[in-house]
Every structure is written in structure tokens, then in C-alpha cells.
Design brief:
The complex is a heterodimer. Chain A is mostly beta strands. Chain A contains no helices and 11 strands. By secondary structure, chain B is mainly beta. Helix content of chain B is 0%, strand content 50%. In chain B, strands 2, 4, 5, 6, 9, 10 and 11 form a 7-stranded mixed sheet that branches. In chain B, strands 1-3-8-7 form a 4-stranded antiparallel sheet, with no helix packed on it. Chain B starts with a strand and ends with a strand. Classes of the chains: A mainly beta, B mainly beta. At the A-B interface, strand 4, strand 5, strand 9 and strand 10 of A face strand 5 and strand 10 of B.
Chain lengths: 112, 115
Amino acid sequence: TQLLEQSPQFLSIQEGENLTVYCNSSSVFSSLQWYRQEPGEGPVLLVTVVTGGEVKKLKRLTFQFGDARKDSSLHITAAQPGDTGLYLCAGAPLDSNYQLIWGAGTKLIIKP
Amino acid sequence: EPEVTQTPSHQVTQMGQEVILRCVPISNHLYFYWYRQILGQKVEFLVSFYNNEISEKSEIFDDQFSVERPDGSNFTLKIRSTKLEDSAMYFCASSESRPRGSPLHFGNGTRLTVT
């Protein structure tokens, strides 16, 4: 069974600080997606990374896919209260064309 | 921006009853999915649907579950005889192509409570 382990599960920091969320697996994924989920809503895609070593930036968010395509990280620079939410990583396994394997999520709270 | 819509937002049913959860995917999308999220747990894949048939299903998607695209717009998930452990948020999603390269667009979910 392929698993994605996210860490930390919960993070509460002050506005302006930097943070990194990790998504790790022992399995290789063909791509990895990061989603953000607000209470009472479905996940909303932030980014998809496909190539080993790939780095993508979305304003203050930087996403990196590991060279071996087994792990990924999300780095937020100068966090703002609007970044508060649940961040989920989801990987497309090599042996499936259709499903995504999900991490348990990181609940992020940015205090003003 | 086009969105995936799900109805109802909350469904309460008694154990053993049948429920149908409804979804309207984004109109030009070809791939449809049901995922569920039990409270406090990970999002879990149930089933994917393409070209009017199930393309992949998980171990969770047993004989009690079925999906249907009865017309050109709706995509439904039926649970024939609900169990307490079926209580969860059920998310419908759609995509233009397979998830490897195409983002999934999720609805806001149906909260199913089985009593």
C-alpha cells in the first residue's frame, strides 16, 4: 500500500514567519499535487509537480518535487493570516491512471 | 469559473437505507471521481468513471456502491444499504484528463450521516 506522510500535522506560527510542510513516501509517484481545503469545502488545487527536482512558485509559496519523485515540500515565505487552512498533498501512483493517494494534511494557522 | 456542484450538502439516513448522492461535473470534463473523507481521516479514493464506465475502483467500493451517469450532466453515487461506517464527507471531482497531468476540480461535498 502506498502512503504519503505529511508533516507536521499541525502548525501555528506568527504572521511574517517562514514555514515548510513536508510530504514523504517510500514510493515513487508520477506526479504530485498540492491542495488547500477550507472548512466545509472541497480541496482546491494549488500546483502540480511532475519532474524530479522541479520547483514551482506561486507568489510566496514554493513547491518542490524530490529528485526521486518520492517526496515534496511546500515552503511559505512571510506567512500571512490568509494562508491559514488545511494543506494536502496527493500523489499519482505509477500503477494507477486514475486515483490519487492523499496525505493526511497539515493544518496551518497564521496568527496576526 | 465553472464548478462542480453536489447535492444535497447534508444527508441524514438510517442504517440499511439507500442513498443517492448527486453531482454535476464541469461540462467539458471527461473524467469523474468519487472520494470520501471520514472525519479526521485522509481523503480516500472510491471510484473513477470515464467513457460511461468505471475505469478504476478501490477496495472500499464494494457491491454496496454503484455509480451512474444517467444523462449528460449528472453523476451519481448510490449506496444500497448504508452502514454506520459509511458516515463521511463524499466529494465528487472531475478533470479534463487523467490526474497525472490534469487537476481535479472538487465539489463542496455531501456530508452523509448514518444513524
